[in-house]
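B., you asked whether I could sanity-check this one before it goes into the benchmark set. Here's the sequence:
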Amino acid sequence: MVESDVKCTRIAPRATKPSCIETATGTLQLGSEGGTYAANTDYTWTISVDISQWIHLRFSWFDVEKNYDVVRLYQCTGIETGKQCVDDASWTLFATLSGSLADSAVALSMQDGFVARGAMRVHFTSDSTIEKRGFLAVWKHSPYVLFDVGGNGELSTSVTHKPRASMFMELWYRFINTIH
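And here's what the prediction gave me:
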């Protein structure tokens, strides 16, 4: 088994400080369904698993100020080349999320969840005005890319339905491996 090159420092999530999570499954929560997150928030979480594993992240609820408060998802591209993902240059942005799941366009873009191989960084920033509920994201890892075949949140390795993000990540992974 090849281990991830992502270096994790175990610290509690708080403003401007990264948090690195090395568990197989878990949740990320900012704010609450009955409350709000703080103004001028800047949180970063890094989820790190074995590089042979895929991380599948799905938002259970999501409500941030549209266009001003943003969640950005990154894949560690340095893992593919044996580099450590210790600086921003080692990470590639693959999703920018803002708004609410109540907005059908936002819900459609997030319905399949998001996948990354070996490590995923989740970065949230908010401005100084209008705080919303925040978000709850759940992740799990698998040696396979997971798919929500029935649309009910249950994940499977079935290849009869491939989410757009998953297909992109698989093609990207194959491309990177052919050039190295």
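One thing to flag: The CA atoms of residues 78 and 89 lie 9 Å apart. Otherwise nothing jumped out at me.
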